[in-house]
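Sequence dictates fold. Below is an illustrative record:

_____
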Amino acid sequence: MALKHVDIFTDGACSGNPGPGGYGVLLRFGNNEKQLSGGFKETTNNRMELLAAITGLKALKEKCEVSLYTDSQYVANGINKGWAKSWRAKGWKRSGNEPALNPDLWGELLDVIALHDVQIIWVKGHAGHPENELCDRLAVEAAKKAQNSV
């Protein structure tokens, strides 16, 4: 049986780095769409980019073929160039024995990717890509809500 194909569009945003941040996700299966977002009072842009990808993949209820679109070269290269797998294999160390940043989220992303057939596709941010622009608006809105929450 063929896997269902799902497109996942993601973006992260941060006001200051670190600072209040948010993520936005759009899942699309055929004509069905679902938007997800969340925010944090103190985070970084890279953490929000990773969390967007994780959140989108975790929303899937069964194994799927996934095209995951991100404007984050950090996320795209970390997966597509095998950096994250290498960091994990080395005990979350980068070249030169430097610690890899965000090992908790990289580990979670690698684990959830393993559940699906995922292709990571980099798109240029803030370049008029409609789904990326939507995810950016969701992420910025979530960051503002997080910043203003008590």
Notes: The radius of gyration is 15 Å. The domain at 4-148 is CATH 3.30.420.10 (Nucleotidyltransferase; domain 5). Residues 8 and 68 are 5 Å apart (CA to CA).
